[in-house]
Amino acid sequence: MAPAENPVHRPKVEVFDLAAMTNTDPKGFVRRVDEYRVEPWGLYMARSSDHAKFHYLESWLLPDLGLRASIFHFVAEHARDQDHYLDVGIFRSGETQWTSVDHYLDIVIRTGRDAELIDVDELFDARAAGLLTTAESTLAVDNAVRALDGLARNRYDLGAWLASVGMPISWR
User: Do residues 61 and 82 make contact, with C-beta atoms less than 8 angstroms apart?
Assistant: First the structure.
């Protein structure tokens, strides 16, 4: 059997340190955060980015939904046809620190038009490699399906769906 073209990676883990005003990405890079906002339903983060494709990132961690909702502020030459991006995973809150564990599935939202589930192959590969349990994989699928259903029922408007479940969000 030939080696996989894109070998499966371990679940990506991030740390959101409210006291230090930093965000540690899955590769261990620590970045300064401009704003954290804690609400009963989640954590908002806004920070600049040194990524080649986007210069700013805004995210909401929504533990009860198993989602991270983001807006990537792309540089012009890397603009994408998307308004919001959802990561499916486990999000844990703490007094001064939150953590996230990505469970591979993602949803691209084009407000008022559609939502696309992506990276299903990565979830299956991770499960097959033993990087996720059956229970974790099932939870990821359940959370993605719930999100897709909620988005569809709200005309693919992330803000409307979240407000309808008691999680009104706002962005910069």
Answer: no
